[in-house]
Write a structure and sequence with these properties.
alpha/beta, 7-stranded mixed sheet, Metallo-beta-lactamase, Chain A, Rossmann fold, single chain
């Protein structure tokens, strides 16, 4: 293995986990958790599901039934009947206890953190912004809660045997790295992992052992999301992960600081490069309105932060004109209340020109006093006033804070920790429900898929791009409800990447191999790949890459009396020349 280089621990380009050995330091870049493995498992219903409990066990082609307790058949697909498991980053490629620091780019890319910090002997420090940490905590808490509330008595492991797996039908037969699949961590492990994080701010310079300096930059993608600069005195590596150039983000992506990079590591691009986010939002609204007008219910599988707030902004401006004023909207998540609270706490990260005012006694935003009232008249927030507030504060604050708050205060949006308790009493149909998990394998969404799936009046709208919606729906077939795919992904597309690379002009680009060739389903689309000169260096999971920067100079400090006494001036210079060739 090379003394210095990049180790790829994840094969998922938007859920990266890489390790960079640079100037005698070992730096992990993100620790994303690949949850697509959960699509191979049966859903975890909150109440007993007669349909799922009656599914037949798998019978192999030779008539063997030894897997009938572990694997179940449903509409031509085979699923594991066990607690869902996640595909961890590689742990055998290098000794992870030698990792000095972990740099987190955004809250979606930290979901594997407890597996790394609690099971590998890691003793270093994790760096991330405060919104990344707090929203990441919400995502982890929801994940743990959703799985622990539906305990499974049995576990399935026989099917993972390589000799057994090759006898199975696809996609289980072709599932990769099944030996790396693990059950979900616990909240004590989450808390232990988060306790190792040191909070940082944009442009804050962090010294690592006097050899390397790392700096987080705004990436424009999400609350607190960051790109990272890793540099020594004479070399510079930029890590660009999960970035956005959309002007609706009030904290724009810091492109200028990426210039003059020897190497730019590029990952986390949009998963749907041919889809326009604005067009997808429009389709979302029109399909939602059509379903409700016809007396049906709408189910939106989502995470408790992120895209949901973009959708709430859209709905705030759309509800009245579409005649949906009397339709209830429900946000169900064990962390729903905390998520809505954080949208106010982290206003400073959304609005750059208001950061300094956050710490002053007066409200940092226009109309903030109005948010103290129990009710906000619609006339106080006309479209003209909203536009003025957008200009003055940054549109993201309106998206994440004001629109959600107004919807709640006007009783159009209600939030609950689960389907039990108050929700059972308040529940009215037709309605729109936002809940998790987007995989449709656990969480309250499973209950509504079972409840509404038999009626063609109802619609499930997929807006999160992380999972194949057809695979997500497979264990619910046959399904009468309508399914609409409106994936919203604001991360960089290939046209934007091309412009970015021409602007910042790195000497070398390093990226996942998926970005160096057209998508398999669109082999003729050569525009859906990274095109730059020199051609990008690509990597795949479990691969070690020697980075192409050359060590031209090195800064050292040595006491004169030591060098003169041991080598003499000429001998010492000869030693240095040999050492850095």
């Amino acid at each position: 293995m090379p003394r210095e280089g990049k180790y790829c621990l994840s094969g998922h380009p938007t859920l990266p986990c890489n390790v960079l050995k640079f100037k005698s330091t070992t730096i992990m870049l993100d620790c994303g958790l690949d949850m697509t493995s959960t699509l191979n498992f049966l859903p975890l219903p909150l109440v007993q599901s007669p349909r799922l409990s009656k599914l037949p066990g798998l019978v192999l082609k030779d008539g063997s039934t030894f897997l009938d307790k572990e694997l179940k058949e449903c509409s031509g697909h085979v699923f594991v009947d066990s607690v869902p498991e996640f595909c961890l980053p590689e742990t055998e490629l290098l000794d992870l206890s030698t990792v000095d620091v972990i740099l987190i780019s955004n809250y979606h890319c930290m979901m594997a953190l407890p597996y790394i910090t609690e099971y590998t002997g890691f003793t270093g420090t994790v760096y991330a912004t405060e919104p990344t940490v707090q929203i990441g905590r919400l995502l982890m808490e929801e994940l743990v809660n959703s799985i622990e509330r539906v305990p499974k008595a049995q576990s399935a492991s026989t099917w993972k045997n390589k000799e057994v797996q090759r006898l199975l039908p696809a996609p289980l037969k072709d599932a990769v790295e099944v030996s790396m699949w693990r059950k979900c961590y616990t909240m004590p492990e989450v808390n232990a992992a988060l306790s190792k994080i040191q909070l940082v701010g944009y442009s804050q310079k962090i010294e690592l052992f006097g050899a390397v300096q790392v700096t987080p930059l705004s990436s424009g993608y999400a609350l607190g999301s960051s790109n990272w600069i890793i540099q020594s005195h004479y070399e510079k590596v930029s890590y660009v992960s999960g970035s956005s150039l959309l002007t609706t983000h009030p904290q724009p992506m810091d492109q200028a600081s990426l210039k003059n990079s020897d190497v730019l590591i590029l990952t986390g691009l949009t998963q749907i490069p041919t889809a326009n986010p604005d067009g997808m939002v429009g389709e979302f609204c029109s399909n939602l309105a059509m379903t409700v007008r016809n007396g049906g219910n709408v189910l939106v599988p989502c995470y408790p932060s992120g895209v949901i707030y973009d959708l709430l902004e859209c709905l705030y401006q759309y509800i009245d004109s579409a005649g949906l004023s009397n339709v209830p909207f429900y946000f169900i998540s064990p962390v729903a209340n905390s998520s809505l609270e954080f949208s106010q706490i982290f206003a400073e990260w959304l609005c750059h020109n208001k950061q300094t005012k956050v710490y002053l006694p007066e409200p940092p935003f226009p109309h903030a006093e109005d948010l103290e009232s129990d009710y906000i008249p619609n006339s106080d927030f006309s479209e003209e006033k909203l536009e003025k507030c957008n200009e003055e504060t940054g549109q993201g604050w309106i998206s994440v804070n004001l629109c959600a708050y107004i919807l709640i205060q006007t009783n159009k949006l209600k939030h609950y920790p689960s389907i039990h308790g108050d929700f059972s009493n308040d529940f009215k149909q037709p309605c729109v429900i936002f809940t998790g998990h987007p995989s449709l394998r656990f969480g309250d969404v499973v209950h509504f898929m079972e409840l509404w799936g038999k009626s063609s009046l109802n619609t499930v709208i997929f807006t999160e791009p992380d999972f194949s919606y057809l695979d997500a729906l497979a264990p619910y077939q046959p399904l009468a409800m309508k399914c609409v795919y409106c994936p919203i992904d604001t991360r960089l597309n290939f046209i934007q990447v091309s412009k970015l690379l021409k602007e910042v002009q790195p000497l070398h680009v390093v990226c996942p191999e998926q970005y160096t060739q057209p998508p398999p389903s669109q082999s003729h689309r050569t525009d859906l790949m990274i095109d730059c000169q020199p051609p990008p260096m690509s990597y795949r999971r479990a691969e070690v890459l020697t980075l192409p920067y050359k060590r031209r100079y090195e800064k050292i400090e040595i006491m004169p009396e030591v060098s003169n006494k041991r080598w003499g001036k000429a001998g010492f210079c000869s030693y240095l020349e040999a050492a850095f060739q």
